[in-house]
Amino acid sequence: MDIKIRYLSKTGNTKKIALAIAEELNIEAKTIEEPVDKADLLFIGGALYGDKINSNLKTFISKLDNNIKTVVIFGTSASKNTVYKELKTYLDEKNISVHDKTFNSPGNFLFYQFKRPNKEDLNNAKTFAKEIKTELDK
């Protein structure tokens, strides 16, 4: 299975999650500056900034095409909101299949959610990645 990970991380929180997923799957996590031409499974990560995703992440998604079989969304947020709904909307517009399972970790912002994502969050991300891959390998 051809698996790729792309993420946008302004504060480093989403990068930590991307690297944990990459470690579990024994692949490299790359930023969204690295294009993806095809993948069986693409993990896309981002965060909310003012309850919106970054415009660069929207641009990245706009360049994807139907050579992406399934996308799994992950992200971080200092609030209870997640990137899932907004990212799914953009991916649906591209007719790219989005897995119904998503991973969201608390991310720190100023003193809110201090020291998150933590070791437990990173281990949860690894478990999530393993479960997704096992499910799709069947």
Please explain how this structure is put together.
This protein has a single domain (3-119), classed as Rossmann fold. It is built from four helices and six strands, in the order E-H-E-E-H-E-H-E-E-H. Helix 1 packs across helix 4 (119-137). Strands 1, 2, 3, 4, 5 and 6 form a six-stranded parallel β-sheet that branches. The termini are close together. It has helices at residues 13-25, 55-62, 84-93, 119-137, and strands at 3-7, 29-31, 39-47, 68-77, 97-98, 103-106. Helix 3 (84-93) links the parallel strand 4 and strand 5. The protein is α/β, with parallel strands linked by helices.
Supply the helix-strand structural class: alpha/beta
CATH superfamily: Flavodoxin domain
Secondary structure tally, helices? 4
Q: Would you state the CATH class?
A: Alpha Beta
CATH names the topology as Rossmann fold
Average of the residue pLDDT scores: 89
Order of helices and strands: EHEEHEHEEH
Portion in beta strands: 15-25%
- Principal-axis shape equals globular
Give a count of the beta strands, DSSP E runs of length 2 or more.
6
